Amino acid sequence: MKKHRGDLRARGHFKTQAMQLKPAFMKEVDSHFTEFVNNLVAKSALLDSSSSASLFPASCSEKELLKAKTLRAPPEHGKVFTARRSLLDELFEVSHIRTIYHMFIALLIVFILSTLLVDFIDEGRLVLGFDLLVFVFGKFPVVFCTWLCMFCATVIVPYNLFVRWAQGYCSSSRRAIRSLCYGMLFTLFQTAGLGLGPTYVAVSYALPPASRFIVILEQVRLVMKAHSFIRENVPRVLCSVKDKSSTVPIPRISQYLYFLFAPTLIYRDNYPRNPTIRWGYVATKFAQVLGSLFYAYYIFVRLCIPQFRNSSQETFNLRGLVLCIFNSILPGVLILFLVFFAFLHCWLNAFAEMLRFADRMFYKDWWNSTSYANYYRTWNVVVHDWLYYYAYRDFLWFFGKKFKAAAMLSVFTVSAAVHEYVLSICFGFFYPVLFCLFMCFGMVFNFILNDRRKGPIWNVIMWTSLFLGQGVIICLYSQEWYARHYCPVENPTFLDYLKPRSWSCHMKM
């Protein structure tokens, strides 16, 4: 009996020691595993970068590649694509993370039940209409025809301009004038063809908000894709001419078409590909996109429309504005999560799966960010890569590495202007709330909450400011939307579209 008790005490002692050693052991294992993975990725990147040298002609020597730095932004050739899964796909394999996903589904069910019960009490029957969804996605035939024209123009014009320029560049006696003429034609297509055309259709046909979003976001996407195609292939032609190569490196039209559909904004002749297509995975992702649309519908119906429909008819005061902002935080944050999940995870993964596109790093763990600098890099990797390689690095290549702050400011300005342009066209009015948040608070937080901030408190501060920002965006844009509905202006001038109506509308009422 005593021996048995002694064994139990010994086991308890060993168990206590094991529990005490567990954190240190796990930390040590994690550090070694992280180091191993980093080394593995580094070696893979070196191998891929060496193979990416085939982007230049094989006859280009190292000396010529060094000379090519005047043609491309040094030091590396650009983004390296590797086969990897999306982070949420890996996290959803953990039951604890999957439970959070189930909680959001449960919240959707609560929204549906709430809406059905309230409608049943008010109307005496179940109201299953989705008038809001039908309205915001209206005039779909116009949207489809506009997209088809944009896509066909992007397939035909940039590719043919590049092919004609590349084929005649080597034998041309006036290469600079030839390049300038073709560059002006391409710029004209980008600004007039892809720039003004879709915008004119969206405004003149009075497309509803969601339909405008589809047209304008596709417009921006195709402009960025066409720029990347030209930006990546022109240096290859210049390098082959300098090396006096007999062949001109011109991509096949099939490679360009694949790039236009691929979920990336960085052109490559070839990407890592998966061997098969999981059609069940594709169907699941599209179903999740559809579910996210209904989720957003119920958020607006239950949390946004009742609040702003009433508050827009009240006299403006500071207390009402503060309450509006804080009441808008919950729907704003939910919309943020839905945009991330539906587009950056589900939509892009669905197209990647159909195209067997293996690099699924469309985002990183932005929710763990302790700085806004890291948040901007990890929230949308697809757009960040384009801004980094074609805006930030090209700015430094052109003006020199001394102007890093100016390069960062230019990237912020371009990003803020494009975001505000999209919202202005889609909502039908100019109200630069997002632009001011980007350029004022975004820039300040980018320098204050920088990469040196590593403690958990900085993650709390980042989330708090993000919540407040979403509340401000939802509140002010919704107030302006309803103000333009309740206080219309007869025969509006151009300035009437620029002046905020919500200020004067509240004063009149």
Task: Characterise this structure.
With 509 residues, the chain is mainly alpha-helical. The protein has 19 helices and no strands. Helix 6 runs antiparallel to helix 7 and helix 15 packs antiparallel against helix 16. About 8% of the residues have low confidence.
Distinctive features:
single chain, mainly alpha, 0% strand, 509 residues
Indicate the topology.
Layout lengths: L1 H50 L10 H6 L19 H5 L3 H29 L7 H6 L3 H30 L5 H30 L4 H34 L10 H9 L17 H33 L6 H10 L1 H26 L17 H8 L1 H19 L4 H24 L5 H16 L7 H31 L7 H5 L2 H8 L1
Helix pairs in contact: 4-10, 6-7, 6-8, 7-8, 8-15, 10-12, 10-17, 11-17, 12-17, 14-15, 15-16, 17-19
Helix content: over 70%
Rg, rounded, reads 27 Å
* SSE topology string: HHHHHHHHHHHHHHHHHHH
Beta-strand percent range: under 5%
Instruction: Give me the number of helical elements.
Output: 19
* Morphology: globular
Decide which structural class fits the backbone.
mainly alpha
How far is it from the N-terminal to the C-terminal residue, by CA?
A: 88 Å
How many strands, which pairing sense, and closed or not: the largest β-sheet?
Answer: none
- Kindly state the mean pLDDT as a whole number? 80
The count of DSSP E runs of length 2 or more, i.e. the number of strands, is 0
Low-confidence stretches: 36-76
